């Protein structure tokens, strides 16, 4: 993935994100379908998940393929799950997490050689904890320099402030590589009355379930958070608080990012397009 670090030019095209659309409702719905609700207890929290049964395409009889997670073609060799290792990745590729989440909402210490203070901390799902992430892409890590030991590109959060992006991306852009699913990843905020993407804090506040109820959420059943916490309830709650969906994940990228609409904000009546 060329163009991911400063001083190096992008040799691969930066393509547009694949869009995710709501499933059609109404007359096309199958009246025979039903949902099942499961509850996973994690510490003192209950992670509820409402899962609809798998449906089939009536024209082919096959299970539809979701585009969620396909991301940007051309700068990687496909989506993968670092928690499963490099399964499905070509030779000389590593399944690299794109999640920069760090304990207590701090910035990841990619450039700080393990520094932990009020500003920087060890990332929860990338770098030394890459194998704990459920989201990532197959990357040819020999194609660019990286401060991360496994050679992966620098994960970043596209919703960070300009100063935070500049600090972690070293002057480059922070581009999302996975599309938010507007049908599953959005919630109606009870305080503002507005639609937005779901966050781990919403699980703690019991505003949403997690698990399979959302489409692009990190650590869906808090298995990785539980491992990281190692019995510390406060650490477990904090880890869950840092969880997010696709809009919280990306890579530092030398070229300009494609314009991506906030598909959850599109549900609000006063939505204003951000893309021309």
Structure write-up:
With 276 residues, the protein is of the alpha+beta class. The chain has one domain (68-270). Helix content is 11%, strand content 16%. The chain is built from four helices and twelve strands, in the order E-E-E-E-E-E-E-E-H-E-E-E-H-H-H-E. It has helices at 162-169, 200-204, 223-229, 233-241; strands at residues 36-42, 45-51, 79-80, 93-97, 107-108, 120-121, 136-140, 155-156, 173-175, 186-188, 195-197, 250-253. It has a three-stranded antiparallel β-sheet, with no helix packed on it. Strands 8-12-9 form a three-stranded antiparallel β-sheet, with helices on one face. Helix 3 (223-229) packs across helix 4 (233-241). The longest helix has 9 residues, at 233-241. It is globular and about 45 Å long. The two termini are 27 Å apart.
Write the layout of secondary structure elements.
Elements lengths: L35 E7 L2 E7 L27 E2 L12 E5 L9 E2 L11 E2 L14 E5 L14 E2 L5 H8 L3 E3 L10 E3 L6 E3 L2 H5 L18 H7 L3 H9 L8 E4 L23
Parallel strand pairs: 5-6
Antiparallel strand pairs: 1-2, 3-7, 4-7, 8-12, 9-12, 10-11
Helix pairs in contact: 3-4
